[in-house]
Design a protein that fits this description.
single chain, 564 residues, alpha+beta, 4-stranded antiparallel beta sheet, 15 helices, 37% helix, 16% strand
Length: 564
């Protein structure tokens, strides 16, 4: 087994998350996954919710496929196939994905518009990953249905309600009055998977929907204010961050695809405003009202996705934002320690088909925080909504997608964008951060040039490049490429290039939901937060060593690279 630095491995985190993905299905309900977990309850509780159908299945199938690509492992094929089979079974004859009725809970069958995004996301990943013609057939029908049910007016297309039924829209009056409640939730977040499906297959209906939904969001909806801020009106879910940020991710991709620089500027205004509401390490408020005290991992993943898209579009300063979020709140929001969770010994307290208390902690190990605090996996504050869900199925699936966004962006072509460990066909990146300012690049193919992003905090004068042909530092003419990356000319197969630089320790004051936190940094890594959390504290167990510890680990090197 290769000896590598014992630092953050995004592919390993994806493998750990698959424990939670596999632990959520409920055998008493035919494999339908539980949606949420209360880990403070004694004993802890897993519970179903009205998101169990297309939303949860779409997110979790997507996670299975992404984790398979990241790890090169097929260990969870049975779990993946279960989600796939059930998801396909939710489709109606009209091509939409339907929630199943649960009359005892007052839930009617309907095609929820929020669900359709998760469904489309997973089916697109299924096709991009495997090229399965069944997936393509399903998505073609799904896209056609989404186009067919849209209300089409001269200058805008929209969905007038959150639920579509086999009999059509439930409120003809909503159509007559041109009402489009929360277009970001129903339409804006569809843009990202629609565009990716178009890019994979050439489906023109998918691209046409992207254009109309982009027009709706930017020019007609009022979801975003002129300065980029989120509209806090209750009609827009009080500026709900997950749906707004997911919409920005789609708009950023559509702008890049079409070469629309004005739209990119629109996205950047809103994204920069959102970053101002978040902490530098990645905690985000849930919305601008009662949910502003609690962080949803889904929102952080949207920030990561949008940041990678903007950075890949040439706004490379956002790579630093993405790296901070990956190194800190995404991996820190993953549940790995269970000592504070109490599970039941038997099923006597269960309500079959609704709740369970057995092995709850073990089942959700690897999950990402459903609603968390800046310093704690659990959000248990007196303000806002108080304590709600500690784990949510949507955040479990989204967390894996966030890992994939990062892992897929570490190396693009001949560019090292993120200083995290990863192996590709051309180069293996071995990061010693945060212990040492050192990155080793093991080259596997002769290349004209390698370029590596060096963090702003590292400066340039003490950046040093060591290789078999000699060494140079950051003050040498020609050391830097025009895009600001460090330039390593003509690396050869079998060569190791080592880049070193200083790693400063700094402090900052971060404000989250009106409360101040004192944060200690080492480079891009948070090494402590004050005050500390209480239920499952974050960042309190991080240790820094003079040299990076070592471990034996076989990095995955995909035979076929594919991107989102």
């Amino acid at each position: 087994m290769p000896d590598i630095p014992d630092t953050v491995l995004l592919e390993e985190r994806a493998e750990l998350a698959m424990n939670a993905v596999a632990g959520l299905p409920d055998a008493d309900l035919g494999g339908i996954p539980y949606f949420s977990a209360d880990l403070l309850a004694r004993p802890a509780t897993l519970q179903h919710g009205d998101w169990d159908w297309g939303s949860s299945h779409g997110r979790l199938l997507d996670a299975c496929l992404l984790a398979r690509q990241m790890t090169g492992k097929d260990t969870w094929r049975e779990v993946e196939d279960g989600f796939r089979t059930r998801l396909v079974g939710f489709f109606g004859a009209d091509g939409l994905s339907y929630r199943q009725a649960r009359p005892e809970r007052g839930w009617p069958a309907n095609a929820n518009l929020i669900d359709q995004r998760a469904v489309l996301l997973s089916l697109t990943t299924w096709f991009v990953s495997d090229g399965d013609p069944e997936a393509r057939k399903l998505v073609d029908r799904h896209v056609a249905a989404l186009k067919r049910i849209a209300i089409k007016e001269r200058d805008v297309w929209f969905y007038p309600a959150s639920e579509y039924t086999p009999d059509g829209w439930p409120s003809p009056n909503a159509i007559a009055l041109h009402l489009a409640p929360d277009p970001a939730s129903f339409s804006g977040r569809l843009i990202m998977p629609l565009l990716r499906y178009h890019q994979a297959t050439g489906n023109e209906d998918a691209l046409e929907l992207c254009g109309w939904f982009a027009r709706l969001i930017v020019h007609k909806s009022g979801v975003f204010n002129e300065d980029g801020s989120f509209n806090a009106a209750r009609a827009y879910r009080s500026g709900h961050f997950h749906t707004r940020l997911g919409t920005l991710e789609g708009l950023a991709r559509y702008a890049r695809h079409t070469g629309d620089h004005e739209l990119t500027a629109f996205v950047r205004r809103a994204y920069d405003w959102a970053l101002g509401q978040a902490t530098a390490f990645g905690w985000t408020p849930g919305d601008l009202a009662d949910q502003r005290y609690e962080h949803e991992s889904c929102s952080l993943v949207d920030l990561i996705g949008t940041g990678t898209t903007l950075a890949a579009s040439g706004h490379t300063a956002y790579w630093g934002v993405v790296e901070r979020f990956l190194r800190n709140h995404l991996v820190e929001s993953q549940l790995l320690d269970l000592g504070w969770v109490e599970s039941a010994l038997d099923t006597s307290g269960d309500e079959p088909g609704w709740t369970t208390h057995v092995r709850v902690g073990e089942r959700v190990r690897g999950a990402f925080a459903g609603y968390g605090a800046p310093n704690d996996f659990v959000c248990d504050v007196e303000l806002g909504r108080g304590h709600t869900a500690d784990v949510q199925a949507c955040c479990v699936g989204s967390g894996v997608r966030g890992l994939f966004w990062g892992w897929n962006s570490i190396v693009t072509g001949n560019r090292i964008n993120l200083l995290l460990t990863r192996a590709t066909r051309q180069v293996t990146v071995l990061s010693h951060l945060p212990h040492e300012g050192r990155v080793d690049l093991d080259v596997h193919e002769d290349l004209p040039e390698l370029r590596m992003r060096v963090p702003d905090w590292a400066g340039y004068a003490k950046v040093r490049v060591s290789r078999g042909t000699g060494s140079f530092d950051g003050t040498q003419p020609g050391a830097w490429a025009p895009d600001g990356y460090l330039s390593i000319p003509a690396p050869r197969a079998g060569e190791r290039v080592t880049v070193t630089f200083p790693v400063p320790e700094t402090t900052s004051t971060e404000v989250a939901a009106g409360r101040e936190y004192q944060v200690r940094w080492r480079g891009d890594d948070v090494i402590g937060i004050s005050p500390e959390g209480t239920a499952r504290p974050m960042y309190s167990g991080r240790k820094v060593h003079p040299t990076a510890p070592r471990r034996n680990y076989e990095l995955a090197r995909p035979a076929k690279e594919w991107t989102w």
